[in-house]
Amino acid sequence: MLALLTCLVLLLATALAQDAPFFNTSRGTSIYAAAKADGIDLTILPFATAALESIEHAYIPIALPPFSNASRIDVHVPTWYHALVPTTGQSPTPNWTLEGQFNMMQTVNIRKSVLSISSPGSTVYVDDEAKATALARLLNEYLAALSRTYPSHFAFFAVTPLPYVDAAIKEARYALERLGAAGVGLLSNHEGYYLGNPQFQPFFSFLNSSTNTSANEIIFVHPNEPCMRVPDGNGSLIIANPTVYPDGLVELYFETARTFMDLTLTSTLSTFSKLNFIVPHAGGSFPSIISRMLSRLSPAAFTAQLEVFKQRLWWDTAGPTFPYQVKGLLAYGIGTDKLVLGTDYSYVPGALVQVYKGFADEVGEVDFLNATEKDGVYHSNAEKLFGARLR
Questions:
Q1: What pLDDT is attached to residue 198?
Q2: Secretion signal: which residues (predicted)?
Q3: Long-range contacts (CB closer than 8 Å, 24 or more residues apart) made by 100-103
Q4: What is the CATH number of the domain that holds 34?
Q5: For residue 204, how many other CB atoms are within 10 A of its CB?
Q6: Looking at the predicted structure, is the pLDDT value of residue 11 above 50?
Q7: Would you say residue 127 lies in a domain?
Q8: Is residue 29 situated within a structural domain?
């Protein structure tokens, strides 16, 4: 969903140079000052002016369709920055509009969507911390603008410039405490480093001890293009898709398995016990390897890890996950109260609203959930998970 920077098309096309002061509104000046106070130079990005214009425009409300009967909550809605990244989530970046988003929400009976940025997130500039950090700040300001303008319909997950840990901690703190983010969005790998990597421990420790809320912090994980650092003396980053198929068709689901296996085997999930995770696409291929992975542990460790999956992992339904994939997931004893609705708008090929409606309606058609459990998937499970952060 969304395109931070639909306006960026103009700036990127003409590659306008920056001259200060280019933030000619009080809001733009405030955003620039807050970034500067955090050591972030927004002017390092050639499209900063357009980004600020896009953020400013997001604060101007548009007429909304009626939402009187909408009740569902969608926790999986990627936002797009089409001009900057023509391919996101390893599929062509959708052409998103605010009007189209609201039309989808009305059709699918969704009253609130939690916005996020799909892969590659802010790490568009490999090995460039300054640009990644500046882009993360602009993305967060844009998401916050939409959430503030339409508080009844939008919340958002913060973007962080991982793998740059100190900068990511600073940005997460700003987004959670100053911008009101409902949680933090991460990728399965950040520039080739998977989430169980020891270098990320301080970041998870910060979130685990956050005083931003009395409830557990929420981390939404989206699969990224498989990447790896090669031992060439320079740590060069290469694309690591071993197949001839597009990542979005196959590899993204394995990416989810890789990073949650990494989080499990490094004890990251169990160590940071005040963190709740949302696993996309009903876990991708992860559920198919849980038993095999945990069977290598002692019986006590097996039980303990499975309990973590049952208590602190939520599983979104984005894509064609009903009925078979979800039934396999529930076979592990994971409760239906850990299923939350996801649409992946506007990522489904063709971006047809009826496709998203069909995926969502499948929840109501299955025979292995009762009426209360179906309502849980549609809204009450997410309401319990997010609490006041979703109101």
A1: 98
A2: 1-17
A3: 100/346, 101/1, 101/2, 101/77, 101/345, 101/346, 102/64, 102/65, 102/153, 103/65, 103/353
A4: 3.20.20.140
A5: 22
A6: no
A7: yes
A8: yes
Nearest to 74 by CA among 283, 299, 388, 386: 386
Distance between CA atoms of residues 47 and 281, nearest Å:
33
Q: What is the DSSP letter of 337?
A: G
Distance, in Å, from the CA atom of 184 to the CA atom of 175, rounded to the nearest integer, reads: 9
Q: Which residue has the higher pLDDT, 285 or 78?
A: 285
Q: Is residue 3 part of a domain?
A: no
**Using an 8 Å Cβ cutoff, are 307 and 271 in contact?**
no
What DSSP state is assigned to residue 320? T
Domain membership of residue 371 (yes or no) is: yes
| CA dihedral sign of residues 41, 47, 52, 54 | negative
| Burial status of residue 2 (CB atoms within 10 A of its CB: 0-12, 13-18, 19 or more) | buried
Alpha-carbon distance of 340 to 347, in angstroms, equals: 18
Distance CA(43)–CA(137), nearest Å, equals 12
Domain count, the chain: 1
Q: Write out the residue range of the structural domain in which residue 104 sits.
A: 8-390
Q: Round to whole Å and give the CA distance between 97 and 346.
A: 10
